[in-house]
Amino acid sequence: MSISFNGYNDNAATFEFAGNAKLGDVVKMSANNKVTNCSAGNDFCGVLKCKESDDFATVQLSGYVRASYSDAAPSVGYCNLASDGAGGVKVLSSARQYLVLNVDTSLKTVGFLI
């Protein structure tokens, strides 16, 4: 038996979309009702789950997500995470805290609750 957090408290919304973020990338608010790519060090509002067209996208705003990470591996427990500027996250002491549930250092991914 394996542990899964998929589906826990999932909440998503559709936004206008500007940028070139890929599915699974963290995104930020850029204007009224609009999300875009994050620059390095930015706080993020969620993870891009679906591009409905070039103009609209669904963003997961809460629940369990997996993202790539760069630089040092996050630690499990509460950890400060910000965008790494490449679609993933990085540890940054001045960023918001998220509950990190698991870290895969071989794949360089982190699972956490938004």
Beta strand count: 10
Total separate domains? 2
Q: Look at the helices and sheets and give the structural class.
A: mainly beta
Q: Which sequence of SSEs, written as H and E, runs from N to C?
A: EEEEEEEEEE
Strand content: over 45%
Rg over CA atoms, rounded to whole Å, is 13 Å
Strand order in the largest sheet: 1-3-2-4-5
Taking the sheet with the most strands, its summary is: 5 strands, mixed, barrel
Give the integer mean of the pLDDT values: 95
What share of residues is helical?
under 10%
Distance between the termini: 25 Å
Large-scale geometry: globular
Q: pLDDT under 50 segments (min length 5)?
A: none
Question: Topology of this protein?
Answer:
Layout: E1 11-17, E2 26-31, E3 34-37, E4 46-51, E5 56-62, E6 64-68, E7 77-83, E8 89-91, E9 97-104, E10 109-113
Parallel strand pairs: 1-3
Antiparallel strand pairs: 1-5, 2-3, 2-4, 4-5, 6-10, 7-8, 7-9, 9-10
